[in-house]
């Protein structure tokens, strides 16, 4: 569904993308993670058709993005709503721009409003909504036309748990219906919830790609032993041996033992550190 | 027959949706238009006796001078309608939608163009009915002049909105710009009564050509309308081209202050 190959983009002296390649299949949720300035938003803008790459190609459903905008739904990083317009008017505007007519549009609005917990706010102006309600409205405008490719750029930044869960549920549902999803975030637990494959971006390119299981394989977990005197911890790929060593070293009475498997935060940190070095 | 059963071309539906929601945005923020209608009406009534004593075309100057001045102030309605798209980050969302550039520009420009025409039309009717301006000899010529002046204001306002770096810049550019354009253009002191050095400066103000065109159109002077109309059209085209380029290509990494 999405195929980006060797994209580059330079703004003055800043190399925003430096050989960025990513492929996302229909029905797949790809979690795009990386530090600030890694090139995630530039990549999303390029797939949206807002930016042209200096070199490289990006195809959505086999054609360049600017030729297939109706197939793409975008929820940008920053809130981009018309404050004097109501939630319903936003959904109607973006629905009409995407080719939805009256009956289909009305039905999509009702369904989305329920899924995104916006039913009670449809007639409220965007400027009067809470931050979470604005987030949900923005995401709903991206989903209204059931796009084949969904670009969600940090859709839950600053969102409350209710908003986050509503968003994640709808994204999972749309992927289940066959949409390809690119989901950028700093909240790695969300990607676990979405059962997303992961692409780690750093310095303008993807430096690791795979399922979370593949990427976590071989990463050290952590063993923690807390005694009455002290707390001992060790990063390890062999928790049993590490636990025995810590117990031998520890002084005082053992109060608790904790074994933690590697998670996406560990992966992110290890890749980011190795890329910097 | 509903719109769903009609085979309306998709571009028209999209442009129609943009026009509808941009009109709604204007209707929900009417304070600028109201003030730019009421203030010139008051000034027309106040200045009419003065202009009538000083000029043979005093009542026409009282109406068209204030109309020109406050229509230039109304340029800020155009500028503001485009600037909020930058401020609210909504323009890129529209650019990423299925709507073509032409549809976006028509959807944005048409509602504010109509607002500018409504303002001019209301002030002309008020000038005729209350201030004593003679009834225009050719309504077609006057409508043409109003459209050309509206087009020039649309271009200038749109260009301003796309090049300023902050809302403060926009306020200054619109307010000070409107005062300069209109006063140098003869809205307050008619050009004929200005000293010779000031008359030379008036050639650099679009307001001079706007006022001359509108006054000639009210008097039914076809020849006197055409020449300034061409200059106003040129101003609108140049400014509109700059604005269109900026709107079509986005702002890249140049963010608002």
Distance between the termini of chain B: 49 Å
In sequence order, what are the helices and strands of chain A, one letter per element? Answer: EEEHEEHHHEHEHEEHEEHEH
Largest sheet of chain B: none
Q: Biggest interface and which pair forms it?
A: A-B, 30 and 29 residues
Domains of chain A (count)? 2
Relative helix content of chain B: over 70%
The strand count of chain A comes to: 12
Major sheet of chain A: 6 strands, mixed
Instruction: State the strand order across the main sheet of chain A.
Output: 5-6-7-3-8-9
- How large is the radius of gyration of chain B? 19 Å
CATH architecture of the largest domain in chain A: 3-Layer(aba) Sandwich
- Strand-residue fraction of chain A? 25-35%
Radius of gyration of chain A in whole Å, from Cα?
A: 22 Å
Overall geometry of chain B comes to globular
**Oligomer classification:** heterodimer
Mean pLDDT score of chain A, rounded? 88
Detail the topology: elements first, then pairings:
The complex is a heterodimer of chains A (277) and B (257).
Chain A (H helix, E strand, L loop, with lengths): L1 E10 L2 E11 L4 E6 L5 H9 L6 E6 L11 E4 L11 H11 L4 H14 L15 H13 L5 E5 L7 H16 L3 E5 L3 H7 L2 E6 L2 E6 L1 H5 L4 E7 L3 E6 L2 H11 L4 E7 L3 H13 L1
Helix pairs in contact in A: 2-3, 2-4, 4-5
Chain B lengths: L9 H18 L3 H24 L3 H16 L1 H13 L3 H5 L5 H31 L7 H25 L3 H18 L11 H6 L4 H13 L3 H28 L8
Helix pairs in contact in B: 1-6, 2-3, 2-6, 3-6, 3-8, 3-10, 4-6, 4-7, 4-8, 6-7, 7-10, 7-11, 10-11
